[in-house]
Design brief:
- The chain is of the alpha/beta class and 382 residues long.
- Among the domains are: 151 residues, FAD/NAD(P)-binding domain; 90 residues, 2-Layer Sandwich (D-Amino Acid Oxidase, Chain A, domain 2), CATH 3.30.9.
- The protein contains 13 helices and 18 strands.
- Strands 1, 2, 8, 9, 10, 11, 17 and 18 form an 8-stranded mixed β-sheet that branches. An 8-stranded mixed β-sheet has the order 5-6-4-13-14-15-12-16, sandwiched between helices.
- A hairpin with a 2-residue loop joins strand 14 and strand 15.
- The two termini are 34 Å apart.
- The model has no long low-confidence stretch (mean pLDDT 96).
- Bound molecules: flavin-adenine dinucleotide (FAD).
């Protein structure tokens, strides 16, 4: 173990015993802390984050406020029972409302341009499968949101939006988009306003039960005690709790420089959700392609690969921005927390030790709702 150079004052002020320690400062960790503190004001709650900023999916994502494209939902209906799919959609829709209520649309940079799913001529069968569930999905969404006819076909817009090699388009009127940076900054600000400590550069390397509490080893040098611990490290969960079935999925993204006369606004899905793009002002943020190199992308490594970035660039040239000149401004990746199914894990692993992890590709949608659920689970034990 390294020598810890924390002074008595530092130890006493920031690293003394906690009522609840939350590990990981993503959407789930910060939302859990805020909801818990609002319910039980007297608790001493600290969020520990290994990065110098939140360093998981929450600061790297594409900012789609969405609840599933039709082809994805069709896939889910073939693999899960109907009730489970209905609950998945409801969890995403309500999770987004929870996030919007918590931070407010202005602080989220929320915009409601709607969403679209694109189908190429090769995907005629996928399009027909998607069409076959429009009525069912519209009636479910009406029951969940009160909004009628959320999904409609809109092939007539293909030309106007400037796409090439696209034969069908399905519009989703209830989809929105957020500014991911604003969301995370607002969550951190809110947590601090609520008198929650959010400490960066604090990596927890182990959790050990000690009597009625837990001892956390920090940065291999300092130990702190906490009566309760919530692990909200998503993709990295199995590093602290090896029995959890969570594995990493690297998701790569690029963003272009500003494009004069960009023809579209909104969120767009391609190939059963494996590719996704949106406008960010007059730029295009484009991500996906994990399906073409799944083995290599099952990794905790950061960075991008030539293979996937080339596939993104090709689709930009041929389908999304044909006849338009564009340049890449930045490329990055983030890590998804995946499992054998799309269900997140929200549970009390043993008395006082909780986990809220495995958000898949939908953590913006469900993260705050999962935080609320986890906070209720923890508060019920006080
Ligand atoms: C490129 C990309 C695009 C995405 N697009 C969308 C989208 O458009 N819409 C959508 O709904 N979802 C999207 N997602 C998914 C979404 O971002 C995630 O599901 C969500 O952010 C997960 O939130 P979280 O709080 O569970 O985990 P994270 O945000 O991953 O937070 C976990 C935190 O734990 C920290 N940590 C890990 N180990 C330790 C440790 N030992 N000690 C201390 N701290 C630790 C990490 O540094 C990290 O900050 C996308 C994800 C990526 C990567």
């Amino acid at each position: 173990m390294k020598f810890s150079n924390l002074s008595y004052w530092e130890k006493q002020t920031w690293f003394s015993d906690n009522d609840v320690t939350i590990i990981g400062s993503g959407i789930v960790g910060l939302s859990t802390a805020i909801f818990l503190k609002r319910k039980l004001k007297h608790l001493k709650i600290t969020v520990l984050e290994k990065g110098n900023l939140p360093d998981g999916g929450s600061t790297k994502n594409a900012g789609f406020a969405c609840f599933g494209s039709l082809s994805e939902l069709h896939y889910d209906l073939n693999n899960l029972d109907e009730t489970a799919v209905f609950e998945l959609i409801q969890k995403r829709y309500k999770g987004l409302l929870t996030l919007r209520e918590l931070l407010g649309d202005k602080n989220l940079g929320y915009e409601s341009f709607g969403g679209y799913e694109l189908f190429t001529p090769k995907q005629e069968q996928l399009f027909n499968h998607s069409l076959s569930i429009v009525d069912k999905m519209n009636s479910w969404l009406e029951a969940i949101s009160g909004e009628k006819n959320v999904y409609t076909t809109c092939d007539r817009k293909i030309r106007e939006l400037g796409f090439s090699g696209v034969s069908h388009l399905i519009y989703n009127s209830a989809e929105g988009q957020i500014n991911t940076g604003k969301m995370m900054q607002s969550l951190i600000d809110l947590a601090r306003q609520e008198k929650i400590e959010v400490l960066f550069n604090c990596e927890v390397s182990s959790i050990q039960e000690k009597g009625n509490a837990f001892e956390l080893l920090l940065n291999n040098s300092e130990r702190i005690n906490s009566k309760n611990v919530a692990v909200t490290t998503n993709a990295f969960a199995s590093q602290l709790l090896p029995n959890l079935q969570v594995f990493p999925g690297r998701a790569q993204v690029l963003i272009t420089k500003e494009i004069a006369d960009l023809k579209f606004r909104g969120c767009f899905h391609l190939e059963e959700g494996y590719y996704y793009f949106r406008n960010v002002g007059n730029r295009v943020l484009f991500g996906g392609g994990r399906n073409i190199d799944k083995e290599a992308e099952t990794t905790f490594d950061k960075g991008v690969s030539t293979k996937i970035q080339a596939s993104l660039e090709e689709l930009l040239n041929t389908v999304i921005l044909p006849n338009t000149s564009w340049e890449v401004d930045r490329r990055w990746s983030g890590t998804l927390g995946l499992g054998p199914n799309r269900e997140p894990i929200v549970s009390e692993i043993q008395p006082g030790l909780y986990a809220g992890v495995r958000m898949g590709g939908m953590g913006v949608a469900i993260g705050s709702g999962i935080g609320l659920q986890l906070s209720e689970m923890i508060s019920s034990n006080f």
